[in-house]
Amino acid sequence: MPPPSVENISNVTLRVAVYPHLSLQLLISSNDSCVHLLCSMEDLTTELVNFTWSQEGQRSLLQFTSNGMNSELRLCNPDWSEGDTITCYARYSGTQTQRSIHLPANNASEKGQTETHLPVCVVLFGIFIISIVFILILFFIFKYKNVTSCNGPST
């Protein structure tokens, strides 16, 4: 005989709280001397966000574009340099949050250095090959001259 069973049924409701957060991304720019940043407020429902930007905590930067949840900033040389800290501030419902990013090395200067080194290497390699050919020609000329002087003049 099986023991009596008791059925307990309970419902559990799980609520997951999702808090808004700010993200800051360095985007690929079509111009190597410029940086393009995207600041986005994520997981915020139906509120407008007021974005502002600063560089090295000092001056206010003008945003390139802005809509309710995103703001873009584009800086071109000489307005930024390697290691600068750019900060995006987001204000909504009396709350302010911020994200910062350190700017990488200027890709334009690195690219320019690479492009300068390539032709120099090609020129040096060309001079090396020409020198080898010149040395071989001199070697054969002197060898032929020594062979003809040892055999005497031909008649």
UniProtKB/TrEMBL annotation:
Q: Where are the transmembrane segments?
A: 122-142
Q: Which UniProt keywords apply?
A: Membrane, Transmembrane, Transmembrane helix
Domain (Ig-like): give its ranges: 20-102
> What InterPro entries does this protein's entry cite?
Ig-like_dom, Ig-like_dom_sf
Q: What is this protein called?
A: Ig-like domain-containing protein
